[in-house]
Amino acid sequence: MKFTISDFSILMGGGIALLVAIGVWLRNKQQSSIANYFLIAFLLNCFISIFLKNLYFNQLFEHLPHLLKLNHPLGLLRPVTFYLYFYFLFRPQARWQKIQWLHFAPTLLLLVYTLPFYSLSARDKVLVFQQALPDPAPNFLAFAGITVSLAVGYFFLSVYEWWRFRPISAQTSLPKIISTRRWLLLLLAGYALYLLSSALIWLLPYPQYEYFSYQIISLFLMVGCIKLLSQSDLPTYQVMPPKYAKSNLTDAQKAQLLQELHRLMRDEKLFLNENLRLKEVAQKMGINENQLSQLVNECEGMSFNDFVNKFRIEAAQELLCSEQFYKTTIEAVGYDVGFGTRASFYNAFKKFTGQSPSEFRRKSS
Q: With a threshold of 0.70, does the pTM exceed it?
């Protein structure tokens, strides 16, 4: 059976998702984050699902029987990767915890259940597909209910994460804030539209409606990927964590401590210490680590490490503009202001200024 224009339009969305996933992976090597890995996983999942559905719609599975039923575990993984992207995007400092592997438990159970089918020969799989042989792992109504429940549940968890972490750092530029918020709203709106189209399949179980559902997915991917490509950097989110919403410090204490913190950075230049730690600064100020962390997050709208790096970047900008340091290498300037590696200096400089150190020096000369 020949592919139609509609088939190619659907595949186009999947193809764009694949290309963007490769692009995100290449950019993530420089701007590494767990969130971006789950974004890549989500895009690849959508691409493979669209490809498999096109095989199904055009009855081409007979030529690739080993791909049969792979769309089932992918359907369970898609909402998981979508949610985990939101989860780690809002927690850039978080690390992967062993208990989070439980998110993949339903997919693992499904793979175990479907194993008798996967172990069949290619010929037997074709016969099962043609309903000439009984399916050793037949689809069951509860599976569809579980899939929909997980998709809806993880969607609302993603919405909750977005709602919970709406406060964004005042240190983030306004265009960056708008771009990131639009990207996240686009993701949520697109995925909500996909869920509604999936519900349509349930209410009106006709093949053309299922086809329409995947056209919506393809359109969602094309629009979302074009939006992602239009941004100079991958989406990041500096937030004010809710746990700091209520501080045990009064406003007067905060103002006094913040003044002291700035004095330590500007006069004593603590930021020049490559191994500067939160505990060390808290001891100098006579407060505990949690209070200092609260102070920086509430008053500066950023993490302690970003606060320190802000002073380092300001110092680096002065050195890069100075005639005395004009012949000094950019890497040496980074080490002079407290960065331990070239990569950390370049990443922080780009984050705070929107340009690389070499671009800044060239424009300043």
A: no
Residue from 128, 27, 13 nearest 68 by CA: 128
- Name the amino acid, one letter, at 147: T
Q: Do 146 and 249 fall into the same domain? A: no
In Å, what is the CA distance from 119 to each residue of 23, 76, 125, 205, 225?
35, 21, 9, 30, 37
**Residue 319 is which amino acid?**
L
Q: What is the rounded distance in angstroms from the CA atom of residue 151 to the CA atom of residue 213?
A: 15
With residue 107 as reference, give the H or E element that holds it: helix 105-118
* Residues constituting the chain: 365
Q: Which residues sit opposite 168 in a β-bridge?
A: 239
Tell me if 266 sits within 8 A of 311, measured CB to CB: yes
For residue 265, what are the CA distances in angstroms to 259, 279, 315?
10, 15, 11
pLDDT tens, the chain, 365 aa long = 455 666 666 677 667 777 777 877 876 665 567 888 898 898 888 888 878 877 776 777 777 888 888 888 988 898 999 999 988 887 777 788 899 999 999 999 989 999 998 899 988 988 888 888 888 888 766 677 788 888 889 999 998 888 876 544 444 444 454 456 677 777 788 788 777 766 666 666 555 555 666 666 666 666 666 666 555 555 555 544 444 444 467 778 888 899 999 999 999 999 999 999 998 999 888 888 888 888 898 888 888 999 999 999 999 998 888 877 667 788 888 899 999 998 899 999 998 888 998 888 888 76
Distance CA 16, CA 13 (A): 5
Amino acid at 41: A
The domain of 303 spans: 242-364
Sequence-ordered list of residues with C-beta below 8 angstroms from that of 156, at least 6 positions apart, any chain? none
Cβ(343)–Cβ(334) under 8 Å? Answer: no
Domain boundary among 185, 206, 229: 229
Q: Which of 176, 173, 196 is nearest to 184 (CA)?
A: 176
Looking up residue 157, the CATH number of its domain turns out to be 1.20.1070
Q: Which CATH number goes with the domain that contains 351?
A: 1.10.10.60
CA 347, distance to chain mean position in Å, is 18
